[in-house]
Amino acid sequence: MRVLVSGGGGFIGSHLVDRLLLRDDCTELLVVDNFWTGRRSNLSHITDKRVRILETDVERLADVGLFDEIYHLASPASPPWYMEEPLRTVRANVIGVLRLLEALRPNGLIGFTSTSEVYGDPLVSPQPESYRGSVDCTGPRSSYDESKRCSEAILFESRRVSGTQIKVVRLFNVFGPRTRPDDGRAVSNFISQALRGKPITVYGNGLQTRSWGYVDDIIDGLARFFWLQPTDYPGPLNVGNDREISVIDVARYVQSRFPKTPIVHLPPAPQDPTNRRPDLTIANRELPGWACQVPYEEGIDRAIAWFSKNEELRSASHDDVAAEFRKSALHM
Amino acid sequence: MRVLVSGGGGFIGSHLVDRLLLRDDCTELLVVDNFWTGRRSNLSHITDKRVRILETDVERLADVGLFDEIYHLASPASPPWYMEEPLRTVRANVIGVLRLLEALRPNGLIGFTSTSEVYGDPLVSPQPESYRGSVDCTGPRSSYDESKRCSEAILFESRRVSGTQIKVVRLFNVFGPRTRPDDGRAVSNFISQALRGKPITVYGNGLQTRSWGYVDDIIDGLARFFWLQPTDYPGPLNVGNDREISVIDVARYVQSRFPKTPIVHLPPAPQDPTNRRPDLTIANRELPGWACQVPYEEGIDRAIAWFSKNEELRSASHDDVAAEFRKSALHM
């Protein structure tokens, strides 16, 4: 069984690689990553001989033969990163999925991590998979949102005309170990700021809500959907935590762990969705027994513990560069 | 002034080429077309030495130098065509626009014909450009709708990060001479059926509405927006006729010209939008003096006259093949 994971050096991708290596039927695992937002350190613990790491843009993937299972996770996922290089983001997702379809063995399975961002700034809550979304296809988040939507279209249309076996998940916010300290999203921002004794910065009033899933729970959902559960359902499938928490509440929780840290407010990020919460009806049907198990507070504590051990965080200069670029990207 | 038109052999593209040739400042006009849905006969009247025709997929365009103006029209636009080859449709639009951006001279202008299909099955009427749409990104029309949305995202994000000069229009339904007889959409279907003494086939009850713009009026709108009018507005700009007419009314009007022709109803086309009408507020502001001038009835009469002279229509076998394939594509 030859398996390929694009973006396997990333936050979620590297956890998926770990999980795939628990499978005996996986004889070869090719990790494809250009280490743009992924990091080699996310894979440095792996000694398994089945793993090969290929450093390349997925959309430029050379001939690597055919695979039985392909998981396409290659994409930046945080606004400052994709807003900095929007065309590259589109290429990774859209041309990436077209390239990977060519590397799929007949009757092989291609799994894709789409995103709750396909719902944009949703007008219904919680969001069922049937909700068509409210995305500004000309806006500053469009490279990510629209390339994920277009990649879904490619997969579902490939299934319709060619019978391709697909599994498409829509991930809601995920947090936990291996998030980049300069990722730029709330949980990792707040923790890395607090750890360095800097103020916690909240974009806007912080009343925007998200549904944060701890990475172990999310990977468990992916594993069940992609290979453990005998389901023919192609997706789209919401995978996330349906406990909705405001950004300011996250900031306050992190602050409770670092009591001297102030919270400061910055101008709102452009077109920041006001709310986000998965309708898990289909997940409950397709993945019986699956649910997010790690309470949010415990997840934050675990993330703090991981970030505390992360040497990189002590490099203020690195973080300042990242902060500068976040600022320029977000506050147009 | 070097100008490139992708899809210049198509229905709208070839009319745009004719219009561009009226400009003295256009010294070279490269038509890029793979003649998938475009036709060489649409260009056979052109003797102008400035025109060069390059038969290639736009996404595989070889090095042709840099251009001052590029107009990207290459895409099938009719459901049976794009539903037959959805991945090729995505490639033409998305990889096409990425490729064309590389062929744009610094400070050059790229114009893109997007579509009212970015609104999907709209929940507001008329549709202003700010309406975010109701598109099923997993549905049988998604290859077209989502690749147009994604191409818009690419252009607006290219403008944001690189200052690229862009002009994006969203075309509503267009009809008139040079439509393929086997295009598969209402007006051309009805006329070609009636001309051959066959029943007029209406998908569903025919109460779905469209806004049909006669091609001369639409090309006039494009010319004004793309080069005649001194506007920095990048779009998106609705260009269409805001007179909303039901499909059954079109069928009846064509029937009034061919009184013995029956109208028969077929099952509805999948995810056929129920309504479509442009809000022209921005068009009225940006293109003062422009409006659709040709009354719909006169446009139909002109289209009938053109189709009557078109020899291809008399080839029943050709049409039957097209009808078969329309049926298989539309009635899943």
UniProtKB/TrEMBL annotation, chains A, B:
InterPro entries, per database record: Epimerase_deHydtase, NAD(P)-bd_dom_sf, UXS-like
All copies of domain NAD-dependent epimerase/dehydratase, residue ranges: 3-225
Keywords: Decarboxylase, Glycoprotein, Golgi apparatus, Lyase, Membrane, NAD, Signal-anchor, Transmembrane, Transmembrane helix
Molecular function terms, GO-annotated: NAD+ binding; UDP-glucuronate decarboxylase activity
Name of this chain's protein: NAD-dependent epimerase/dehydratase family protein
UniProt subcellular location: Golgi apparatus membrane; Golgi apparatus, Golgi stack membrane
One cellular-component annotation, GO: cytoplasm
Primary residence: Golgi
Obligatory cofactor(s): NAD(+)
GO biological process terms, semicolon-separated: D-xylose metabolic process
